[in-house]
Structures
1.
Amino acid sequence: MRLLNASGCLDALAAPEVARTLDAYVTKTVTPLPREGNAPVRIAETELGMLNAIGLANPGVDAFVGDHLPRLAELGMPLWVSVGGFSVEDYVHVAERVGSRDEVETLELNLSCPNVDEVPENVGEVVAAVRAVTGKPIYAKLSAAVPDLGATARAAEAAGADGLSLVNTVKGLALDERTLQPVLARGAGGLSGPALRPIAMAAVHTCFRETRLPIVGMGGVARGRHALELLAAGAGDVAIGTALFSDPAAARRIRGELEAELAALGIVSADNAVGLAHRSADSTLDQRSRLLLEKPLHMGANLPG
Amino acid sequence: MLRRERRSVVATEAIGPYTLLRVERGTVDPGRPGQFFMLEAPGRLLPRPMSLALAPPGELAFLIDPIGPGTRALCTLAPGDEVGVLGPLGNGFDLDVERPLLVGGGIGVAPLPYLSERLGGPPAVLGFRTSWHAEAAELVPNAEVVLEPTYVTEAMPAGRDVLACGPEPMLEAVRRLAPTAQLAWEAPMACGYGACYGCVVEIDGELKRLCMEGPVLAAA
């Protein structure tokens, strides 16, 4: 099991010592052109989470490759680049540029940002197009807020994805205490934190059964127990997001707590915990492949062609 | 190293509508006036950014205005309670000034007591909504106090090196009068160390993170 940051939840150039507490660093999403992002107010706290509407602020792929990437490489740790865009061509453009760089280990396709108006229509089409231009591992980052997440995940798998990142934030709204106007300038924003955790759990659980792809689980992980539960639901790796905001040492702490949780349950290692939640439901994990073969791919899967 | 430290609350004092929260300092560096700390707010998901108001021996003191759930929770802390403290963060005031004048509005007075101490008690002009709010002026020596509808800009002498903190309209007005002023701004922050991109403000025509570029910025 690796511990990563969720994309957009850490700037390794601003806080390299925090990045080094992780097993791999995932960049903020890179788009073809520079983006200033949304006007403030961009963040709000809710009862059980936080909302953000940053709007994919990033320097654009040229400045990222020319300026940021060499400095990120100095961290000496595996780099995942989050790839974003507003069309298939955008994703291909960024993936070609960063995918050709030795410093980059993995491409994570951000197919689910809730804070921009233009969203990719077709997960399978984007994954297939990126697959055609890079040999690097591709992780598809999906939202749980789709009608049939299993179908979306299978589409990504069929198109050549090497893994899934689950989940992105889901849309939420908060109003100002006094004015009753939306706190965020954009109105709604992406909900993260504790409120997202059961949603992430269900998404990981579903995709573990419906695909054979390795999964990075994320959504509200703040304690070792939360990481353990995502592993049990089927994640092989875990990412931390909102918890990093309040505690820059969250990764180290969560790793320690996870060790204690595993020991208390007599589980030898984190990798041995992967998929444990599926044990009783299907009697053996081998049923995964059977489930997969028996389930027809349907129209909603957005398969290429 | 960015490390959230747990510190005990030493005392809390009501000053007008505000609360002066005093916590034990331990090994935490109080930093430069105008820098801030992220304080863990009891029962809340996100910490709150607070500039240091005073650095008495062995303590860090924060002046807090209970305007929302986080600041209200911070004001309910009692002596002996523990609170997470991350900092000092951001860029503080440049103390290399010849004729300093401190200008504060409302809770923007917060960083000025520490700033005044480090500058040897320069003159200050402080503006408040009511005389109750103006009780906070007792924390700043040599302060002239104005109450609404009088604004601080009406009491600011010319030819001084202005160091100001207050609401945005006040800072904009101060900026017009004193183009060389140093202004401490405020923005909602989730992390305080550049991770969340939540605290952007327009700086030199671009949206930049206040926690990294500020919170103290040059007026011009």
2.
Amino acid sequence: MTEWVTAILLLIGTTFMLLAAVGVLRMPDLFLRLQTATKAVTFGVVFTFLAVAVHFAELGVSFRALLIIAFFFLTSPVAAHRIARAAYFVGVRLWEESVVDELRGRYDPQTHNLESGKVPDSPSPAQQPPSKSPQQTEM
Amino acid sequence: MTPPAAGPLAVAIQLSWFFLTVALVLAFLRLIRGPSRPDRVVALDVIAVLVVGMIAVDAIAHRQPVILDAAIIISLVGFLGTVAFAYYVEKGGPH
């Protein structure tokens, strides 16, 4: 019985990790790749380490597995936010079919401070070069 | 200890190795291809998490719970490396 539960949890977790890697390869845009890499990977880690906790069923081992899960819940949004913020400020372009860029014109290009209420007329760094640059994704 | 020879857990472990290996290859393709530097940072982050998942599968397969400590350390180092890379990308530029 425990064996079945472990097997099912392990398969769910590793399947979601595989789907996350497929998304990281196939998504058209850095920000879309980033949300795949954050959400699906966290889901996969949760189920994989739940499988570890169920399989060993000892206090120390299960505590370590739950500790890793809690650690991923804490750190993966922070890391994704740091990468997305840095990428937006250095001018990584959005996907050309993206419908909204809510940060456009709302931050100071020098100090990187965000403001609300400023008129969004200045172009965002993601839209500034009208010609296709080599950093544009090819997929 | 040897991995379990038969039963649902043995099948699940083999499939998990296969999935994680394919996922590593795909993330490594994005690491090679990644047009901008943040793309490579994302790919490295995913690779670190996949290695943590491989450690979990190995701990189950060989009944060795001690290597979970290595999983904790690798996840910690992966997070710190991602934040540090994000800092330098913000200072440096997209390429």
